Amino acid sequence: MGEFDLIARYFTRPVRRAALGVGDDCALLAPAPGMQLAVSSDMLVEGRHFFADVDPEALGHKALAVNLSDLAACGARPLAFTLALSLPRVDETWLAGFSRGLLALADAHGCELVGGDTTQGPLNLCITVFGEVPTGQALLRSGARPGDDLYVSGTLGDARLALEALLGHAPLPAEVLARARQRLERPTPRVALGQALRGIASSAMDLSDGLLGDLSHILKASGVGAHIDTYITSNLIAEKAYLSGENGHFHLEFIRQCTLAGGDDYELAFTAPPARRGAVAAASQASGTPVTRIGTVLAEPGLQLVDAGGQAVEHRYASFDHFR
Ligand code: ADP
Ligand code: MG
């Protein structure tokens, strides 16, 4: 099978919203009047972001999910994406699974595959997504103000738990690993929540490298600090019952590592004034996405972590950095 047959079979879909999709030199796409285009790219490299033997269907899902998560963080509605793919060989079983996972998530969000590039080489995937957001209403990292509440969506740390287990660092029963692994391999981009938070959240971002490290970007961009209740964040790991139960021999320290610096969560972290608590609750309800208040924005720069007794928690949870 040649390059063009491969593109035709696995990556060519009729487009509805874009004026032109796969097959010409460019795709053609316009945001609706009054909307801005939100654009983001994310690359996934074998051995770096995923194991060589990962289920291709899950990989297709994740490659698009991490990109949709960036649109969610800006409050944008997904429109379309391009896929640049470098493949060691044509493996039709792999391609069928990969495109199934990719296009199922694309369909679920009405996000059309409009073009890309395909070459031979080490396995490497790069997606660029395009979304739309009403002009001036995108959620940014720079809007957090002292006194704002600090929130995260969903759960934290389960992807890291699965990663530690797969690396042989944390033995887990098969059913616990299976659940945590879903969070690592098939993250849920919080697209509906991001849009529901437009006009409510003062700042937002998605969590890919770990809560504390990612949060520091919001704090820096906004010129503020924050206080975080770690007894609340420690409860946000979905496998909490196992980890702290009779059979779980994991320490609070490990739970903190996963929840505060886990990485691969793809949840949203955002801030909003206390006067908008009702509106945040309504956005959570309307989008079917749980959110939890985990702290407060402070005028003084820096992150203060506090435990249940009000004691300061020493903060040494580095976030993921490819070059460190
Ligand atoms: P060009 O040589 O002009 O860059 P290509 O021959 O690389 O074009 O690609 C032909 C068409 O197929 C283009 O419309 C391109 O966007 C599309 N395409 C190539 N690879 C992919 C892919 N992996 N997924 C979706 N569309 C693709
Ligand atoms: Mg080309």
From TrEMBL:
Binding site residues for Mg(2+) 1: S41, D42, D117
Record-annotated PurM-like N-terminal domain positions: 23-133
Classification via InterPro entries: PurM-like_C_dom, PurM-like_C_sf, PurM-like_N, PurM-like_N_sf, ThiL-like
Key word Nucleotide-binding present: yes
E.C. no: 2.7.4.16
GO biological process per UniProt: thiamine biosynthetic process; thiamine diphosphate biosynthetic process
Enzymatic class: transferase
Binding annotation for Mg(2+) 5: D209
Binding site for ATP: G116, D117, R141, S208
Domain (PurM-like C-terminal) ranges: 145-306
Chain positions recorded as Mg(2+) 4 binding sites: D25, S40, D70
Ion transport listed as a keyword: no
Binding site for substrate: H49, D264, F320
Catalyzed reactions per annotation: thiamine phosphate + ATP = thiamine diphosphate + ADP
UniProt keyword terms in alphabetical order: ATP-binding, Kinase, Magnesium, Metal-binding, Nucleotide-binding, Thiamine biosynthesis, Transferase
Binding annotation for Mg(2+) 2: D42, D70
SUPFAM superfamilies: PurM C-terminal domain-like, PurM N-terminal domain-like
Gene3D superfamilies recorded: PurM-like C-terminal domain, PurM-like, N-terminal domain
Pathway(s) annotated for this protein in UniProt: Cofactor biosynthesis; thiamine diphosphate biosynthesis; thiamine diphosphate from thiamine phosphate: step 1/1
Binding site for Mg(2+) 3: D25, D70, D206
Pfam family, one: AIRS_C
HAMAP family: TMP_kinase
Biological role: Catalyzes the ATP-dependent phosphorylation of thiamine-monophosphate (TMP) to form thiamine-pyrophosphate (TPP), the active form of vitamin B1.
Family: Belongs to the thiamine-monophosphate kinase family.
Note: Reaction mechanism of ThiL seems to utilize a direct, inline transfer of the gamma-phosphate of ATP to TMP rather than a phosphorylated enzyme intermediate.
Identification of the protein by name: Thiamine-monophosphate kinase
Organism (species): Acidovorax kalamii
Gene coding for it: thiL
